[in-house]
Specification:
3 helices; alpha+beta; single chain; globular; 8-stranded mixed sheet; Nucleoside Triphosphate Pyrophosphohydrolase; 23% helix; 8 strands
């Protein structure tokens, strides 16, 4: 089975002027960027912004960059799932994320770009974090 998910790499300027990005902790115990399944009627960008709002309470503006794409395979209910993820770089306002303990997300943290790869749990998200760092540091 194939699935497409879209999401955001939310970023903002910290008080010290440095760029920091938001990562969320899934209730499954892994750190990644906000993302979710694409609905059939949605554009990729619509899914990304919807998931950002649903999972963090934040509203953002997508950057002009091409999305960061990662793929991986996992097993859900004895079915192999080939997942493709598109993550859009997304500037958010300086407002605080509103991440309440929910079914999908249990925590969040704002991190300096250089700390993203260390926080991401899975290799694919570490790769996405590295690409996000490269895009945002330029």
């Amino acid at each position: 089975m194939k699935e497409l998910a879209c999401g955001c790499v939310p970023w903002r300027r910290a008080k010290n002027g440095e760029i920091e990005a938001l990562m969320i902790l899934r209730t499954g115990g892994y750190w990644e960027f906000p993302k979710g399944k694409k609905e059939p009627s949605e554009q990729d960008t619509e899914t990304a912004l919807r998931e950002l709002k649903e999972e963090t309470g934040l509203v953002g503006e997508l950057g002009p960059e091409e999305p960061i794409e990662v793929s991986y395979v996992f097993v859900r209910d004895d079915v192999e799932v080939e997942k493709q993820v598109k993550l859009f770089v997304c500037r958010v306002s300086d407002g605080a994320a509103v991440v309440e303990a929910k079914r999908e997300v249990s925590d969040h943290t704002w991190l300096p770009l250089e700390d993203l790869m260390d926080r991401a749990t899975y290799p694919e998200m570490k790769d996405a974090a590295r690409k996000a760092w490269q895009l945002l540091a330029d």
